Amino acid sequence: MTETPIAQIPGIRLATVPANIKNWQRDDLLLIELNEGAAVSATFTQNAFCAAPVTVAKEHIASGNIRALLVNAGNANAATGERGLRDARACCGAAAEALHIAARQVLPFSTGVIGEHLPLEKILQAIPVAADHLDGAGWEAAARAIMTTDTRPKMASRTVEIAGEQIRIAGIAKGAGMIQPNMATMLAYVATDAAVAQPLLDELVREAVQASFNRISIDGDTSTNDACVLMASGATGPLLGDPRSPEYERLKNAITEVHIELAQAIVRDGEGATKFVTVQVRGAASSDEALRVAFEVGESPLVKTALYASDPNWGRLVMAIGNAGVEGLDVEKVNIHLGDVQVVEAGGRAASYTEEAGEKVFSEPEFTIAVDLGRGDCSEHIWTCDFSHEYVTINAEYRT
Question: 215 by DSSP, 3-state: which?
Answer without folding.
Answer: helix
